[in-house]
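Weekly sync notes, structure subgroup
Attendees: PM, AL, DS (notes)

Item 1: joint prediction request from the bench team. They want all two components modeled as one assembly rather than separately. Inputs as received:
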Amino acid sequence: MASTHRRNAVEFLGAKLLGGLRWAGGLSLLGRETLRWAGRGVVHRRARLRRGTLSAQMVRVGVRSLGVVFVVQSFIGAILALQMAAPLAQWGQESQIPRIVGAAGFRMLGPIITAVVLSGFAGASIAAELGTMVVAEEVEALEVMALNPVRFLVLPRVLATFIMMILLTVIADLILAFGGYAAAWAALGPDVYRGYWDRMRDQLAYMDFFTGLIQGGVFGLLIGLIACFEGLGVRGGAQGVGRATTLTVVYSIVAIGAAALVCTMIFYAFGL
Amino acid sequence: MSAANDIPAVRVWQLVKRFGDHTVLHGVDLEVRPGETMVIMGGSGCGKTTLLKHMIGLLSPDAGSVELFGSRLDELDEDGLDALRRRFGVLFQGGALLTSLTVAENVALALEEHTDLDAETIDIIVRIKLEQVGLREAAGRMPSELSGGMRKRVGLARALALDPEILFYDEPSAGLDPVTTAEIDELIAGLTRKLGVTSVVVTHVMESAFRIADRMAMLDAGRMLKIAPRADFEAIRDGEPTGDEQADLIRQFLRGDAEGPMSARRTLDGYEQDIMRAAEGG
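Output from the run, pasted for the record:
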C-alpha cells in the first residue's frame, strides 16, 4: 500500500514537473519567435508593425490600468509608513520612515505590485481577446492570408506590456512615495513628514530607481508573453477562453515572484 | 489543353492524419483540376474540415502529401508557404473577420501587407471586391454589426482581395436561412464563372452542393468513397437502392433519409461501445 502511494506521489510530481517544463519550453519558443519578428521588423520595412497597433495596445494596457495603479500604490505607500512607525518608535527612529518607504518602494513594491495589477488587468484581457480570436478562426484566417500571428498579434502586445510596465513603474514609485507622505502627514506627526522628501532623496541612489525599472521591464515581458501564449493556446470554445484567462493571472503572478527573486539575486551578486 | 493546365490545382495523395489514437483520415486521394468547382461532402465528423485544413496548410499530414499548383506544402519553408498562400483565398465558416477592424479594413488587410499599392488604389480595389459580393455600402461598418450572411460575404470579399487562383470554402451555407444560402451559392457559382477561379467547397448541405458543383467527392469516416461528376451523384440520388452498400450509403446521404446503411452502422457502433464501456466497469 505504502509503496503504491509513494509511486503515485512520484508519478504525480513527475507529471507536474514535465507539464511545467513543457509550458516553460513553449513560452520560451514564443519568446524567441517574438524576438525574431522584432528583429525582422527593424531590418525589413515589410515586417514592421501596422500603423497605430502599438499605440492602441499601449493605451489599452497602460493608460486603462493607470487608475487602479494609482489607488493601490497610494494605499501601499501609506501602509508601509504606518507599519514601520511602531517598530521604529521603539528606537526613537520614526523620522527614518521615508528612507524605508523609498528603499522598499522603488526597488521592489513599486514594480511588483504594478505587475500584479497589470496581470489581472491587461494580461487577462489579452488572453481573453486572443482566445476568442482562436475560437472564431480569426487566427487561422491570418495564417492563411500569410500574416504571421506572432508578428501581427503577439509582438505589439508584448511590446506594449513591456513599455507600459516601465512607464507605470515610474508613476507607481512616485504615487507610493506620496502615499507614505500622506499617511505621515495625517497620522504620524511632524517628526516624520517634515523633511520627508529630503531624507528619502538622501537614502535613494539612482540604482534603487533603475533596478526597479529593469524589473518592471522584465515583468512586463513576462505578462505579455504568458497572456499571448495562453490566449493562442485556447482549445474548446468559451470554456477554454475562461480557463486561459484564469491561468494567465495565476502563472503571471508566479512568474513575477520568481523573476523578482532572480533579479534580486543578480543585483545582490553584482552589488547593485 | 496547355501544359500548365495539366498540373492539378490541388493534389492530395494518400493523406493520413491522426489525433492521438484516433485516425481521422485514412489515406485520402483527391485531385482538383484548374477552373473546376469541387464539392467535398460528408457527414459530421467524417474528416472533411480536417482535409480542408491540410489543403490550406494549417495542418501537416502524418503520411501522404498535399500539393498546390504542383508544390508540396510540407517541403516549403515559411516564406515559400507564405508566397503560395497569396495565391489562394479561404472563406471560413463564420467569416472569421477581424472584429477590431471595419469591413473595408478587413478586405484591405492583405493588400496593405502584401502589395506596394498606395492607399487610394487599395481603396478602389476594396470597393470593387465589396461590390462583387454586393456589400459596397457596408464598408465602414464593424463586423459585429453584420448578420451571419453578410459576414460571410465580407469574408469572401477578403478572400478575393489578392485575386486568388483557388478559393476554399468551409461550410459556406452553415447557419444560414435557405434564401441566404441560395444567394451565397449563386455568388460562388458566379465568381467561378466570371473570374475562372478553381473552387473547393466543403459542405454537408446537399441543395448547395448540387447547385454549385462540377465534380463531387464523398468522404465517409476518413475514407474517400467516390469522386465523380455531379451528374453521376444525381443519378445515384434519384435512382433506386441497388443493394450495393457503398452506393446505398451515398444515396442515403444525398437524399437525407433517416434509414439506410449509414444509420444502421451508427446504432450498431454506439451499441458495441456502450457494452464495452459497461464491461470495463466505466
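Discussion: Chain A touches chain B at residues 46, 50, 133, 136-138, 140-147 (CB under 8 Å).
Action: AL to compare against the crosslinking data before next sync.
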